[in-house]
Amino acid sequence: MPPLTRWRFWLLSLAAAAGIALTLSLGAWQWGRGQQRLALHAAIEQRMALPPLAAHDYLAQAGAPAALHRPVRLVGQWLPEHTVFLDNRQVEGRPGFYVVTPLRLANSDRVALVQRGWAPRNFVDRSVLPAVSTPAGEVEVVGRIAPPPAKLYQFGEASSGPIRQNLDWAAFRDETRLALVEGSVQQLGPPSEGLVRDWPPVAAGADKNFGYAFQWWALSGLIFILYVWFQFIGPRRRAVRRA
Description:
- By secondary structure, the protein is an alpha/beta fold.
- It is 40% helix and 23% strand.
- A five-stranded mixed barrel has the order 1-3-4-8-5.
């Protein structure tokens, strides 16, 4: 083998080995991430199956990552003057609002931010609020601890008033001067008060990681096949034709 050909052979071999090692390791990393997501999802499902927390336990555990998605049973009074309608939220492809109302807990000055449910939009006049009733007096709310409502992309500055695109927890606390409990509560139960409580399921998200893992491993296999073809099979076929 001439020196130039030998150098070319070893250079391509080194590049192929590096590419295979890199893609194999990236695939393994994505696979590990997928397994971690599955374990986290299993832990969340275990929390969701636990008995509901009472108010004092909720106050003690709210804000802790281990408390997310735990059921709660709260008693208090709605503060309807601070209700916010989060726009452009869809349920079964229908646009509408997520309705968020603070709940002042009984025998406390603390306030839980409750995502009460979804209501459809008025297609004739976007500024018309949906017909949502808010019971007066003491109410009982069954739900689960959740992060604040997810934020959508927003043009311009944050809006104020009852209809908003997003709700920033810290800014809302400063705006209302309420003693908000960190995070929020998603109310559960059948439709009532003009609201549907069909919340998106908590997804594991592992399928995406597993898909990436197989893509990296397929690329690793492709590099190996191309290396074998161009370094061994191709040259031998050409040599046979010349013979």
